[in-house]
Amino acid sequence: MKQKYFLVLALFGIILVSGCVQQGNNDQPGNTGSKISVPINISFTMSGTPALNQDVTLELYAKGWHPQEGLISSQIVLPENFELVSGDLSWINETPQQNEVHIVAKVKAIKTGTYNIMGTASILAGSKNEYLFVKVTKYSLTSEVSDKPFDSSGTSAQSQVIEEKSK
Asked: What is the CATH code for 37-145?
């Protein structure tokens, strides 16, 4: 009788724990798996298109859903061959009641190619990432910014190219 009771209790515990775990990870660029629910809204944009050695502006806006949690940190992660021209790439919360942040940074590409730029915001419950997929060429007319990764040939298949924010 004790073994049966213990077995039922153990099975119930396993079911309870497995129901609380969410599958999938949306932290990788281009991942279309199920999203992990972290109580943060995040917007990450680029104004203009990143031609070689031309400044563009990155903006990261993040806001926590619950004021009592506050944001712990936010940052823009530049890939190799991008440089900060002015502004900030990171922010760390020093006021627990502040649950939103707006980071603005001017950057430039110093080499042509395709790159992923990540904007991230973190709270105690986890973090959320947004990606900009960038194709840098010598001229802005042939450079691109996309919400989808570029394939090996440098084209963004099934992409919705992000419109310039400066228009």
From this structure: 2.60.40.10
